[in-house]
Amino acid sequence: MDTDATGAWVSLFSGGKDxxxxxxxxxxxxxxxxxxxxxxxxxxxxxxxVPVTDLATLAAESIGIxxxxxxxxxxxxxxxxxxxxxxxxxxxxxxxxxxxLDADLPxxxxxxxxxxxxxxxxxxxxxxxxxxxxxxxxxxLWQQEPRALADAMLEAGFEILLVQVAAAGLDESWLGRTxxxxxxxxxxxxxxxxxxxxxxxxxxxxxxxxxxxxxxRRLALEYETEWDGTRGRIRVSEASLx
Length: 242
Description:
Layout: E1 8-12, H1 17-29, E2 33-39, H2 56-63, E3 67-70, H3 83-104, E4 109-113, H4 120-133, E5 136-138, H5 146-156, E6 159-165, H6 181-194, E7 205-211, E8 219-227, E9 232-241
Helix pairs in contact: 3-4
């Protein structure tokens, strides 16, 4: 990665812990991040974080970086039984938006940040996209030890809420729970018993960062929980910046 490359950096941003950590580390490294880019999937997605991405607007306001929102026309363009084809199709609207942004920004796009941890499926596609856009990729979470990574987030001051769960051992009480050291200890036990990934990398849970050192104001939420017996999510009724 050429940190001296001219042009702007763009952060792929969902509001979840992984993309937020990638953004935070980029800013700490001194990369000139000038845009956040949020993709809003319309259903289940192989490529993107899905829950509460509508709150990315508030998060971006707190962070103080302009947000570009991408609304794909059709996430069902490829058969759901063909994950490779669907992953490629899901990437197309993002790549098109970044191509337009590259043309609009002075100096173009120098690089992209991504919060990939272990998914070769996602990372290989983002890497290939960056090659086509002729820009760098900054992926500071890639293949890091999960507990050390989670501890680093907490030590930095991230306040992380679980907004969706879908795994054995994760019941309704986890919805809206703060991901703190105690929760991480419990997740490690669930990993040993059920194989739950400590960072939710297998879709076991999804998160929202409501506060952190890269944010000027905390996100305040009012929500209800939805639970079907094996999985659930929060439904935010009101959100604001404190």
